Amino acid sequence: MTEFLNIYRGGEAAASPAEGQQQMQLWMAWMKELGEKGHLKSVGSPLEKTGKLVSGKHKVVSDGPFAETKDLIGGFTLVMAKDIDEAAELSKGCPIFLTNGAVEVRPILQMNM
Q1: CB of 103 closer than 8 Å to CB of 93
Q2: Count of alpha carbons within 13 Å of 71, Cβ hemisphere only?
Q3: Is 2-107 in CATH node 3.30.1130.10?
Q4: What does residue 66 show for φ and ψ, rounded to 5 degrees?
Q5: Within the chain, which residues score under 70 in pLDDT?
Q6: Is the peptide bond before 65 cis (omega within 30 degrees of 0)?
Q7: DSSP 57
Q8: Which one of 6, 57, 72, 82 is at 20 to 30 Å from 40 when CA atoms are compared?
Q9: Whole-structure pTM over 0.90, yes or no?
C-alpha cells in the first residue's frame, strides 16, 4: 500500500448551522468507512482561511493564501491505497462533491534518509 494525500479544494459553505452539522456528519461517516476498510492513515485537519506566503530568494512574507476562492485548500487527509487509481476511486465518496468542491489526490514520495 502507498500513501496518498487528499487535498480538499473549494466547496460551498453551509447555509445554516444545521446544514453545517449535517455536512460534518457526512464527512465523519466517510472517514469512518475509510478507516474500517484500512485506507485511512490520518484524518488530517481542516485549514484556516488565512495564512502567510514566504517566497523568493529574499524570503518575502505576504498575506495569503493567494488562490482563487474556488481553489482554496480547506484541509487534507492521508490515505492508503494500492495505486493512484484506487486512491482516486476512494476519493469519490467524499462529501465535498455535494458542495461543488474537489479532491486533489497526490502520491507521497517516499524518501530514504
Answers
A1: no
A2: 5
A3: no
A4: -110, 35
A5: 65-71
A6: yes
A7: T
A8: 72
A9: no
